[in-house]
Amino acid sequence: MVKRKLSIFCFTSPRRGEVGAQRRVRGIDISVLALKPPTPNHTPQGEREYITPRSCCEDDVMSSPDIILRLSNIESYYGPIMAIRGISLEVPRGKIVTLLGANGAGKTTVLKTISGILDPQKGSIEFKGQPIQRMEADRIVRLGLSHVPEGREVFPFLSVRENLMMGAYPRKDRDGVASDIQRVYGYFPRLRERINQPAGQLSGGEQQMLAIGRALMNRPTLLLLDEPSLGLSPLLVKEIFTIIKRVNEEQGMSILLVEQNAKVALETADYGYVLEIGRVVMNDTCQRLMQSQDIQEFYLGAKEDGARGERRWKKKKTWR
Ligand code: ATP
Questions:
Q1: Quick one: which of 183, 194, 202, 220 is 20 to 30 A from 121 by CA?
Q2: Which residues pair with residue 284 across a beta bridge?
Q3: Residue of 99, 103, 118, 281 best suited for mutating to test ligand 1, as the one with most atoms within 8 Å of CB
């Protein structure tokens, strides 16, 4: 007999008492693992001064007194490696904010730090006015913050329905959960068609829909989305982003979006931050970012030939 064993990467993070517990779902042994790695012993030396980016509320388009998420001078490390260096940013309630940046700029680390997967070594994070830095990931989920990780991380041996129910893990209101699962099927009819199919058999696009649907099952007020377009065809990217926009408009859900496809991200979001080597180097409304020559050349593929046919950004070492 083939014995199937699964270690859970649980984006809702298990409760303290459940870490190390074993469960059996449809003949599969599931071990519940803690997500958060131990905080490294490394202690940064001395105080650094960071430039705080202009608040997004200073822009007319974004004027909103209600900031749902505020990061102030956050530093996060992987062991001795400093991955983000004093990042400050804001997400106003009901808006979509995007993080742009090259590979390794620190976008995923910012999301992991917000959702409590990583503890920051310095700085503060306020969610709905409450400090959440160094809070356990499961408590952050219960406050209404869901994270769709890069690479989807669906539970491959569980069915579509079971995956969605895992997203409702912190909830007790059965009626609310039942109506929300129908709402998710409304957004993603393909998931309804595959309700009993193991998630591992779904296509990449369907798995992305499932990962977003699972996060929505927590009825979050803030959704963190990491690279939802990764590996998907242009048609599917369009479909998924249309739904992201719908969720934002219909439910007033605030969204922090990390996306390599800068064109789609800037068209979808209201406000954007550009990261470079762990720092914010530019922030503005997406409308204005799209008009910026650096953004057009570096992220949108526009080519402006100089006297010797060189691209301007190739001559720049950094953004500032
Ligand atoms: P990508 O678009 O490629 O996902 P990113 O902007 O999301 O990039 P991060 O994944 O946040 O960047 O990485 C930021 C920095 O931290 C990089 O220098 C990366 O090499 C480093 N890093 C990321 N994960 C780890 C890890 N588990 N251990 C050590 N270093 C890491």
A1: 220
A2: 272
A3: 103
Minimum CA distance residue for ligand 1 atom 18: 104
Determine the Cα–Cα distance for residues 160 and 303; give it in Å rounded to an integer: 44
Q: Which residue has the higher pLDDT, 17 or 114?
A: 114
What architecture is domain 52-286? 3-Layer(aba) Sandwich (3.40)
The residue whose CA has the least distance to atom 3 of ligand 1 is: 103
DSSP string for 157-216: TSBHHHHHHHHTTT---HHHHHHHHHHHHHH-HHHHHTTTSBGGGS-HHHHHHHHHHHHH
Choose which residue among 35, 77, 81, 118 to substitute to test ligand 1 binding: the one with the highest number of ligand atoms within 8 A of its C-beta. Answer: 81
**Any atom of ligand 1 within 6 Å of the Cβ of 191:** no
CA distance linking residue 188 with residue 240, whole number of Å: 9
Instruction: Domain ranges for the chain, please list them.
Output: 52-286
The pLDDT tens digits of the residues spanning 138-153 come to 899 999 999 998 877 8
pLDDT band at 296 (very low <50, low <70, confident <90, very high): confident
**Helix, strand, coil percent content, the chain, rounded in steps of 5:** 35, 25, 40
The structure's pTM equals 0.80
Task: Please state, as a whole number, how many other Cβ atoms lie within 10 Å of the Cβ of residue 77.
Answer: 20
Q: Is 83 in the pocket of ligand 1 (CB under 6 A)?
A: yes
Ligand 1 neighbourhood includes 21 CB (under 6 angstroms)? no
